[in-house]
Amino acid sequence: MAIILDHVNYIYEAETAMARVALNDVSLQIPDGQFIGLIGHTGSGKSTLVQHLNGLMKPTSGAVYFDGKDINDPEYDRKNLRAKVGLVFQYPEHQLFEINCFLDVCFGPKNLGLSQKEVELRAYDALKKVGLPDEYFYQSPFDLSGGQKRRVAIAGVLAMKPDVLILDEPTAGLDPKGRDEILDLISELHDTLGITVILVSHSMEDVANYVDRIIVMNKGEAVFDGAPKEVFSHYKELEEIGLAAPQVTYVMEELREAGFNVNTDATTIEEAADEIMRIFQ
Amino acid sequence: MSSETMLRTENLTFEYIRRDEEGNVEGITTAVNGVNLEVKKGEFISILGHNGSGKSTLAKHFNALLFPTEGAVWVDGMNTSDAKNIWDVRQEAGMVFQNPDNQIIGQVVEEDVGFGPENMGVPTKEIWERVEESLKTVGMYEYRKSSPNHLSGGQKQRVSIAGVIAMHPKCIVFDEPTAMLDPNGRKEVIRAARALNDVEGITIILITHYMEEVIYSDKVFVMDKGQVTMQGTPREIFSQVDKLKELRLGVPQVTLLAHELQKRGLNIPDGILDRKELVSALKGLRY
Fold it and tell me: Partner of A243 for a Cys bridge, out of A124, A238, B231, B249, CB 3.0 to 4.6 A?
């Protein structure tokens, strides 16, 4: 179920005086099962990009292929695509609307035209997977904490059984523990379900800890694409486009400048601690 | 109370009644429970706490958006529960909220900034002087004729701050001002807050979930279950890594790295706050 973007361009309000290029010749391959971090400052084209992946937006030119088929072909079943490529928007809890959590999660699969029994099985399964305690299933989603609401919203997308799960800033507004809990959950879903996960984030520390590939967007272009270590080794260029490497990467750089013989490619606390201990032993 | 005190709460308690859809009382929640704190003029204060710990409810008492169920709040010597003080309190204690889109109302940046002083009845000529001065303070003067819609999140938030400064407050409460911003936007806003404190001497109260943002504060309060459970300098607070974790909070990544190195046997001090301190501590070990 790989996704391929082939020379995708997107121009807002094309052919008017207000035309703005949002995606500029983006070509990417997203194979099955990867855990990808998509980073870039506000307005860099991240959200425009992810909305192309499930056909919410159509390229001005270029093509998007899912499982070998052009998703913008007039014959293509885009409804099914949106079940297969699940998109969790920013602050997804604002989209909760039902009288209890269980019914809210049923909404997606019900719209796929599944039997009532299948809908309920999927909703139950999805709520279990996001770790919502049973006693909340029949409570109003509005009585839950911020982190719990967000779990319910993610369950709503999981109940569609997507092959690709895209989350736009899933930790925005949560406290540090809440952030860790949601990221651990996403990582666990990636590992146990074997699905592709694309995490749109501003937090380099979060991304470095979890993903195996980072795509950096700037001015509508994918400017870096590689393993976290590789991408963060360009920390000077990242700063120029309004981003930064994780704090520990800078610590290692400063240690080296201070005359310590350390490798500077650590991106997590664990790696940095290992490297510092190595020279002190 | 000395004239050096900007803000003081005494046994501040706030309760609200939860109702079901028919309006029947389901129960009473105590969001803030017996808080006593004092903020001096010119201080930079941070408040930390997990989601639901009561920090935003507390903050809304500082400019009379909420009133204590029990206890009292004084802003610059004025009791906020006294109806005759309410407009003076709101002018002296400004507030900046999380979502910039919810607090910008003007079609043009300079109109938006002028809204506050206009409502205070400031003469027109002085309004324009204040608008100019406020926009210059936050570095947004060159955008004064722009539409707020075309600004980035960090820029919008700086316009919101200018709108507050134009009212000439003595104190500004920032309620998670960076939660919706990217790293650049976060830096812009925190830099603006620190400059207001350093240069203009405005008292700042910063509520945030980002631990890196509080390391320059004079004092940090940590809230849990509606109460202040820890208070001290950033160094004192961030020395207690395990306690903060119990409270669903974290510490800056550099502090965490230092803590990890300590656990592995390196002799470095508690409460390292930034990269410079860590590098010099490690240098000290080598020689």
Answer: A238
